[in-house]
Write a structure and sequence with these properties.
The structure is a homodimer. By secondary structure, chain A is of the alpha/beta class. Chain A is built from eleven helices and ten strands. In chain A, helix 6 links the parallel strand 5 and strand 6.
Chain lengths: 269, 269
Amino acid sequence: MNRLSLNQKTVNGLGLAQAVDACARFGIGSIGVWREPLHEFGVERGVELVRASGLRVSSLCRGGFFTRPDRDEALADNRAAIDETAALGADCLVLVVGGLPAGSRDLPGTRERVRSVLAELVPQAADLGVRLALEPMHPIYCADRGVLSTLGQALDLAEEHDPSVVGVVVDTFHVWWDPDLPAQVERARGRIASFQVCDWITPLPADALLARGVMGDGHVDFRAVADLVAAAGYRGDVEVEIFNADLWAMDPDEAVALVRDRYAEHVGW
Amino acid sequence: MNRLSLNQKTVNGLGLAQAVDACARFGIGSIGVWREPLHEFGVERGVELVRASGLRVSSLCRGGFFTRPDRDEALADNRAAIDETAALGADCLVLVVGGLPAGSRDLPGTRERVRSVLAELVPQAADLGVRLALEPMHPIYCADRGVLSTLGQALDLAEEHDPSVVGVVVDTFHVWWDPDLPAQVERARGRIASFQVCDWITPLPADALLARGVMGDGHVDFRAVADLVAAAGYRGDVEVEIFNADLWAMDPDEAVALVRDRYAEHVGW
């Protein structure tokens, strides 16, 4: 239980103060903060609240969407996210890079855009001691959420920069299927900025964005992935991040208890 | 239009004779036959009908599901499919290898099972001059349809055998997102047994099995993939295989006309 981190999205109905309180009551030592509830609470107050709680902040979610039509807007939004990450003292800023722009079928060009926007953000992140964490997303989201589709591809991009400034996210939901996963996780040694867990369930729920399952409800072998991540030297927190309508409909305390118990059963770090 | 092949699944409501007739009426020179309608029509009669039609048979769909609990049943079913492929004179037997067995989370073990069942089928295929075509499937189907998730992984497996006996399928729907696609298609030179086209559409329809779109309705750059396949030396037919409830609800002649027109617009070989 020492390394469990509650990602706020897992308890989507809670505000920041309630999520922080839930961590304290359930003995969870780390939290993954989302920007929307942070903004809602007020960034300055929120930073004070989180810092006063003594919780570790395993990530701020999320920056990215580099592929939106207005490049300046993408840069400004991410610069604000980098500032917030520094203020929170979070381990990293998770980046969901964005999908194809509306009407575009230019996947290589869109991926090049990601590379170029990232490079423009790196100096600010380095100055502030913020680690950017590129999240490869399951190919189901390639068109509309993230054109970064494999851990190998994320590493190709990350390796253009210092590992203290650009790392990668290993999220079981996104990468569990990858036949090249063992080799790529080993290659990610020193670059794993975040380890997130949630399950792949079938049949896939109708809304693909809410297709994630609680550990144990699906097909992912969590210990196998956790062993790879540990063997690659990762010693950070393990974030449980689950987008799931059934989980969100539960009483929040019951949801947190379920997540805690399943984490203990299936990961147990 | 010379190389367009109508996969029967695109006109799911038609029986074998109707599908053959539609090809003739629309000037389509090739057909991808499915086993279920072939069995329904009667294999012997069906083979006669197809051979008499003068159509090329770009594939028989499908063998596979090597991962089902009963290995002997998997072998027997695939041996029958190989016989049918030979009788039809089809260019290949498309193999959807199967997902994780119920309750299993052993993805590496399941993939090993695929390798071993395939190896057992190769001698029969070689004897009958049948080409087995491994179909890498979009990772969305890894748990429940096919643990072969990338073209690279399919080639790793195929390369254990003679290219005239074990090839691969390049289906745009399954592989369009793959950042390694250009390199892997080039690597597939001499192994591309089938080239299938259909689009990736968003939002993803509620039933993931019917998530495929008509060319032009989604995000795939067909010419880019077709150029790769051509550069790798593929000179065979281009099968349009679309599982889509809206298409299936259309008048079949209108559906065939739509597919023919979109093929001409987006592929045009």
